[in-house]
Amino acid sequence: SQQGEEDPQALSIQEGENATMNCSYKTSINNLQWYRQNSGRGLVHLILIRSNEREKHSGRLRVTLDTSKKSSSLLITASRAADTASYFCATDMVGNKLVFGAGTILRVKS
Amino acid sequence: EAGVAQSPRYKIIEKRQSVAFWCNPISGHATLYWYQQILGQGPKLLIQFQNNGVVDDSQLPKDRFSAERLKGVDSTLKIQPAKLEDSAVYLCASSLDGGGGLEQFFGPGTRLTVL
């Protein structure tokens, strides 16, 4: 079974716009990670946020975590065509065992 | 730094045949993972090794899937016999250890088609 559920399933935006993806999960976690997958580079780790953190930034990425609502969001600012990919949240409950959601497909049009 | 290596990249077999996938993790990474990713879904963990011991294989269909990691480095995943529903991308990943809070590094995957 998949712990995380991403929303929306697909998102299409213009280059330069911001993209927001959401992830909800069901049980308590140690941390939550976001990964990107495209055909050229496979699955790549983007950012990790621990359960005692509320917000984290990395370049154009901003991740928030609300453990009371069991939800997280990934914001990509000033999107580029190269950001076109599938984005997955993955929850880590114990021992680095990741449970992935079904992903959000992001298309950035130039 | 060399990434996670996997081979073959593509494999097409008939149902009931057997197939094996190979993975070489990043040097020094103690933990190795095999995932199955069916089209349109996220990766699902099949098995997790810490060095050459199995940490978690709760989602591995043990009647047909087997995996080993001899000497705590390379790993092979085998399917015997394959079913149509095994068509998927098989991803190998590694991390420094399995203590939690660590990013996993993924290989390019092996795309398996079972006819």
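qc> DSSP finds no helices and eleven strands in chain A.
qc> done
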